[in-house]
Specification:
Number of domains: 1
Order of helices and strands: EHEEEEEEEEEEEEE
CATH architecture: Sandwich
Number of strands: 14
Amino acid sequence: MTRQIETRPMTAQAFAPFGDLIEASGAPDKIINQGHCGRFHDRARLDFVDGRVGISLFNADPRALPYRLDMVERHPDGSQAFIPMTSNPFLVIVAPDAGGKPGIPQAFVTRPGQAVNYHLGTWHGVLTPLHAPGLFAVVDRIGDGANLQEHWFDTPYEVVPG
């Protein structure tokens, strides 16, 4: 038996309880480089208990909808940003914390040009590109100690198009 979650478009307001939507929306905060570049300044709150910030590259296999969600994870010692290196949309799954376990998950599909930053301790699905290549820059904590908690659902969810 599975439970269904419908995807919805990614918006900053809907994603705010879980993290930051990173996109170049609205007017730039500043024009730089002799007037040839708009800077959209400080679009994500990076938060780390200890360690340092690192940038890694992930190349994930693309997935398809419907998608079977049987596990979510979180990082108690640092935020984690997924920044696609293509203009393809990707699936974002998050869940509120419910007493140390994930609550009912929510699913979003990004638009081209959007990236996400999960706040420290936010339950989220694994990196889930919907098209190849699944190449992402990932900004997260580099340091000692375990910074990963996984939760496996007794009854999986099926993520379907909204």
